[in-house]
Amino acid sequence: MNSKIKKSKIFSNNSVKSVFYISLIFISFLLIKVSFAQFEFTDIGARAVALNGAYTSVSDNSLAVFYNPSGLGQMKFREVSFFYSPAPFGISELSTAALSYAEPTNFGTFGLGVKSYGFDLYKEITGLVSYGNHYKNRIYYGLSINLYHLNIKNYNSATSFGVDIGAMARITDFLKWGFFCKNLTGSKIGQSKERIAQVYRTGFMIFPRKDIKFMLETEKDVKYPFSFRGAFEYSILIPNTVGDLPGRIDLRAGVGSEPTTFSAGIGLFLSLFQIDYAFKRHPDLGFTHQGTITINFGGVEIK
């Protein structure tokens, strides 16, 4: 009798464990299906989110490590930026955080970036080392080397590498073109050899005055149809904000297709500090809010 009870308990415990692990795997892959593909190219930084991702021809701060490393060649001052979105569209499982750093030198600008996406059961970590430079301040070029690490709790983990490239050109005094390729190498990850998102972006920035910019851009993920984005940014200089130092307010808005989205936001520049806020509306998921804090050691400038 006792042996039967013991066998029953053992069987019950094993059954519970089996169900737990099967459920864990199922939930992890379900989350991948309903949210994003592995290492999907998602917008990082409240400024870029407010512009609906139309950032390829802008990329004039440390976040260029994620959007277009050639943009690092435009930078003249050291910068560090932190982005955090704890629950995009109210879904904590999509939590995203990123840190970027840029260091201009006489040999070009070097950048570092780290991005975390997911939660305890499913986590993606991306680390980047980037470089950007320019030729006579007219042509810009850059690349990023990515380390991808995927971890599914109590199931498996995997690591891979990939390369991004980017380019920019000042066509006229008021027109700039940008191009970016994410995962040029077509890198894959995991035992299933699932290809990491491979994305091509190109677009133009028109700046008829120093205080206003218009962006037009298209994107092609190899797995999805073409998408298009348009955005604008208007800068207002505020004299003597902190002591004798000027401040600045940026107003931004953007639209996109595939899916149809709308975004807007504001940036506040005070001395070395920049605080950005953005919201974005998705047709199915609703609204989400984003925030970024940046320290630029060059202070406030209208570029």
Can you describe what's shown?
By secondary structure, the protein is mainly beta. Helices cover 14% and strands 54% of the residues. It has 3 helices and 16 strands. A 14-stranded antiparallel β-barrel has the order 1-2-3-4-5-6-7-10-11-12-13-14-15-16. Strand 14 and strand 15 form a beta hairpin. It is globular. The relative contact order is 0.16. The N terminus is likely disordered.
Q: SSE layout and pairings?
A:
Layout lengths: L1 H33 L11 H5 L13 H4 L11 E7 L10 E10 L2 E11 L3 E14 L3 E14 L3 E17 L2 E8 L5 E2 L4 E2 L3 E11 L2 E10 L5 E16 L2 E12 L4 E10 L2 E10 L3 E11 L7
Antiparallel strand pairs: 1-2, 1-16, 2-3, 3-4, 4-5, 5-6, 6-7, 7-10, 8-9, 10-11, 11-12, 12-13, 13-14, 14-15, 15-16
Main attributes of the structure:
about 300 residues; mainly beta; Porin; 2 domains; 14-stranded antiparallel barrel; 16 strands; globular
- Quantity of strands, as a count: 16
Helix content: 10-25%
Rg for CA atoms: 22 Å
CATH topology of the largest domain, by name, is Porin
Give the name of the CATH architecture of the largest domain. Answer: Beta Barrel
Beta-strand content estimate = over 45%
Pairing-aware structural class of the strands and helices?
A: mainly beta
**Tell me, what's the shape?**
globular
Number of domains: 2
* C-alpha end-to-end distance: 83 Å
Number of helices: 3
CATH class designation of the largest domain: Mainly Beta
